[in-house]
Each structure stands twice: as structure tokens, then as C-alpha cells.
Amino acid sequence: MKILLTNDDGIHAPGISALHHALLGVDERHNTPIGGPDTTILTVAPDTVQTSHGVTFHAPIMTRPVAVDEHMRGVAVDGRPADCVKVALSSIWGEHFGEGSRPDLVISGMNAGANVGLNVIYSGTVAAALEAAFLGVPAIAVSMHLGRGKPLFEVAAAHARRAIELVLAAGLLGAHDCININVPRTEVSWGPDDPGERARPAVREPSDPDPDSVDPYADPEIRVCPMNTHGLVDRYERRESPSGDVYYWASGGGLDFHRLDDGTDVAELFERRTVVTPLEYDLTRRDTVGPWREAIEGSAARRG
């Protein structure tokens, strides 16, 4: 199996290296690659943190080879996640494996932070996976829910690999398909001398148990579920610059929704379950195409 690995947190982020090691089978829990001994992983990821589904047209997309560690080498791209996939599939992949060749699978992640509910619309992690699906390569986006504790990226990556293995074993992943996987909070309490304790943001969610109340090493249950489609509760702090200009600083919780439907990705993730959601990129509202066609085309015809 040949895998293209990307993300939106940047090629040096802990999540992508943890997922790379889990997929390659060089982490503490695995000793074989996910697709067997012939598995190859090429990492093509942004040079720095990026967001959303944007692409570059009127500027050069700079690249450079990067050796993250003894196992993970790849290409850093001065662009967005979708740029990474587009450049990789059209050029970089062929330069490594032969002109006209393509990966068997694109994996985007592991993102530091959940991408569930309507957040998938804003997600660079999901954007990279959808870009691959646009272009006819099966894709999986992987994200990790963060809470108050110290995230265990290697353990979360092992949970993600387990979900990916089940997705692949199902045999349902087609050329233009995209699967969104979110791993629940996998964390322990911060140590007294750990500077990250002060850096972690507050998280607003219905229940926020102590990090040590759940065994992070235990395999979480896996649920296949739809997105929660209710809007986020937006909060902004009004501030003034030294010159008197007014600006607003986003202060929402990120996973605070106006409504939370049972059985959706957000609800199941809050219950510390891994959630798997099939996504599509066709935004057509097909149930209304007929009425709109009749109303507009019919009216135009009657008017001559």
C-alpha cells in the first residue's frame, strides 16, 4: 500500500509524526505497517500551520525536503493543505514513484483538535482529504479531540490506526470517497512543571471530566454517525487598539453548538467514542432542484 500523508498543523506537528509512526508500525503498539511490509508513506504537508479549504493560484508554491526524524521524511510545502494534495498528486508523487502513478490512499492528520459538526466546513484537515477525493483518490481525515489534559498523541494515533484498519477492511472506500475520523480525548493530567499546563485553552462542552477519570490507553468504542448540523455559538470580545480602533477577538469554545443531536459525531465524541463519518463534496440540494427548475425555467419560458 502506498499512502500520501498530509495535515494542516504543519509537517513538524506532533500529530502527524505520531500518526506516521503508527501507520508505519514503528510506535510502541505496532510492529508492522498498516498495509503490510510493502507499505510506503510519503509525507507532503504544509511548512506551517494552515486552515480551511483554500488553494494558491497567483503565487509560487515553494517546497523543500524535510527529515522530521529517523522514520519520517517528506516535503514541506509553503501552501495550504489542499495545495499539498494538489501538488503532490500532480507532480511530487510522480517524481518519487514514476510518472502517472498515484497513491492508494490519502490520509490527512492527525489534527490537534476535533473536526466534528459544522467545523468540518472550516477544517484544513478535512479540506486536504476532500481535495484528494475530488481528484479520485480515497481519503481519510483524522483528528484528535483536545481537552484540559496533556494530549497523548502516540496513543491517540494508535486509536486512529485501529479505526482506519476497520475502514479499509470494510471494503467500501471508493475512489472519490472521504471518511472523517475523530479520536476522543486521549490525555493525562499536566505535570506541575509542564509549561503546557498554562497554554491549554479552556474547552466548553457538556461534560468535562478530569483527564485521569478515563483510561486513555483503553481502546475507545467506535461509532459511525452523521454530522451534527447545528450552528456554533459565536462569541467575540470587543476590544480597542492603542490608537482607538475597535476590533473583536474570537472567544467561543469551538465545540459549543446551539443544539446537539443524539447520535451525531459531536455527541458521540463527547462520550469518549471514536467517531467515523462518511463525507461528500457535492453541495447540491438535490431535493429542491426539481422545484427550482420548474419555477425558474418554466417562468422564463412563459415570459418568452
How does this model look, in words?
This protein is α/β, with parallel strands linked by helices and 304 residues long. It starts with a strand and ends with a helix. Helix 1 links the parallel strand 1 (2-6) and strand 2. The protein has a single domain, classed as Stationary-phase Survival Protein Sure Homolog, Chain: A (3-Layer(aba) Sandwich), CATH 3.40.1210. The protein has a 9-stranded mixed β-sheet with strand order 3-4-2-1-5-6-8-13-10, with helices on both faces. It has a two-stranded antiparallel ribbon with strand order 7-9. A two-stranded antiparallel ribbon has the order 11-12. It is built from 8 helices and 13 strands.
Give the overall shape, derived from the CA principal axes.
globular
Rg over CA atoms, rounded to whole Å, is: 21 Å
* Main beta-sheet strand count, sense and barrel state: 9 strands, mixed
Termini separation comes to 58 Å
Helix content: 25-40%
The CATH superfamily label reads Survival protein SurE-like phosphatase/nucleotidase
* Largest beta sheet: strand ordering: 3-4-2-1-5-6-8-13-10
CATH level 1 class label: Alpha Beta
Percentage of β-strand residues? 15-25%
Overall pLDDT:
92
Number of helices: 8
Question: What is the correct CATH architecture?
Answer: 3-Layer(aba) Sandwich
Classification by helices and strands: alpha/beta
Count of the domains: 1
